[in-house]
Amino acid sequence: MHKFQKKTLANLLVETIKGVKGVDILCGVPYTALPIATAVSLQTGLPMVMRRKEAKDYGTKKLIEGVFNAGDQCLIIEDVVTSGSSILETVKDLQNEGLKCSDAIVLLNREQGGAGILQKNGIKMHALLTLSQLMDYLFKANCIDVQVVEKVKQYLAENQVPSIPTPTVDRRKLSFLDRAQLAQNPVAKRLFEIMASKQTTLCLAADLTDATEILNLAEKVGPYICALKTHIDIVDDFSINLIDPLKEIANRHNFILFEDRKFADIGNTVQLQYSKGLYKISSWASLVTAHSVFGKGVLDAIQGAPGSEEKGVFLLAEASATGSLITDAYTKSTLKLTAEYPKLIAGVVCQNPLFLDNPALIQLTPGVKIAQTSDHLGQQYNSPESVVTEKGADIAVVGRGITEATDPVAAAKRYQTLLWDAYLSRINP
User: Fold this and answer.
1) Which segment of the chain is annotated as a signal peptide (predicted)?
2) Which residue in the list 103, 260, 328, 394 is annotated as catalytic?
């Protein structure tokens, strides 16, 4: 494209942008629209972010590159729209990073249904030119004859894009009681019911090394949590005698016992780790975590292991640790497994609002703390409010914010209130 043409195009887009209110940032749909968005950014001074089609497997590994703040209003720029699918894919990734999207500016609307599809998905399209207008201009300039104009009209009439199904539900907008009716995993169903009845989405990470301290903490904060998460192999004085009193406390205060084992091995080994050995996890933990790196074998092993029939798995799709090697492709592959094991998988451990159209699954998000943003070992923290309203968490995991508090009960009550209020504002905006 000639330098003069680019400037003219940028000027035309800038004029159109003036009619769009509250734009904070720009994003060109990859990859053809990137130079157009860059020209507009330079012309207006508006900052720009770049969306990658696939996250890098090195460096930041982000899909969205650039400087932005959660809640920024992002204007999408595209060259040509047929169905609008590329814009919707871009919008989804931007929204997963906390950006808001309501408008898109395009150079050419091919008039094949894209504008309507975008409108149904909450995006208003502003087009500089339609294909019919382009044909009219070319005809008046004697560049094409009337036969070509008629052929294009006929083509458009016969080749409308079928509407892209709009998600009928967004799990973030549904109540836990409504979602309990949709849950196929029995532990997920019970968790939804506990969360609703106790008005808590707080999972306590009881990462303590003394058995008595774990029991005392569970007794004190039990009324304010929906689940108690353990790393049972760090308990210095573990004996099987810890389990019965822990189960009794969980039953009395109505919360789920959850062993964060993160199973990742061949199926036979996982089955033994889950049901045998010193800890006999399958006999007392209703929930466990697992990596998907070994594929279906891990899930088959847990599903077929002896122990309680009420069992649920949280698959690890994203991590809260700085420098995690989990890629976008790995996350997507993990989510695919949830559709194959709906009666076993209770939910997904992640840091972003994934699987919005599957309210039967629970999003569990670790790394929640009121004051601190990180620790010296790479753990990243989110505030209770942001983890629910921006990150999409259904259950928030809090550890040291409670276990290291001067008054753990008061801390648990505060987290419970903050998280529940955020949930209420999410379903009743």
Assistant:
1) none
2) 260
Q: Cβ neighbours of residue 363 under 8 Å, at least 6 residues apart?
A: 171, 347, 348, 350, 353, 354, 355, 392, 393, 394, 395
pLDDT digits over 226-257, tens only? Answer: 999 999 999 999 999 999 999 999 999 999 99
Can you give the pLDDT at residue 53?
73
Q: Is 260 a catalytic residue?
A: yes
Q: Parallel, antiparallel, or unpaired: how do β-strands 48-51 and 64-65 relate? A: antiparallel
Summarize pLDDT for 341-395 with one digit per residue, the tens: 999 999 999 999 999 989 999 999 998 988 655 444 444 568 999 999 999 999 9
Is the confidence at residue 58, as pLDDT, over 70? no
Structure-model confidence comparison of residues 76 and 325, the more confident one: 76
Structure tokens given for 260: 């964060």
Predicted structure pTM score = 0.66
Q: Which of 120, 124, 262, 332 is catalytic?
A: 262
pLDDT digits (tens, 9 = 90+) for 159-213: 998 875 555 578 999 999 999 999 999 999 999 999 999 999 999 999 999 999 9
Sequence-ordered list of residues with C-beta below 8 angstroms from that of 201, at least 6 positions apart, any chain: 195, 226, 388, 393, 394, 395, 396, 419, 420, 423
Instruction: Check 79, 178, 265, 300 and give the catalytic one.
Output: 265
Q: Which residues are annotated as a binding site for substrate?
A: 207, 229, 320, 379, 399-400
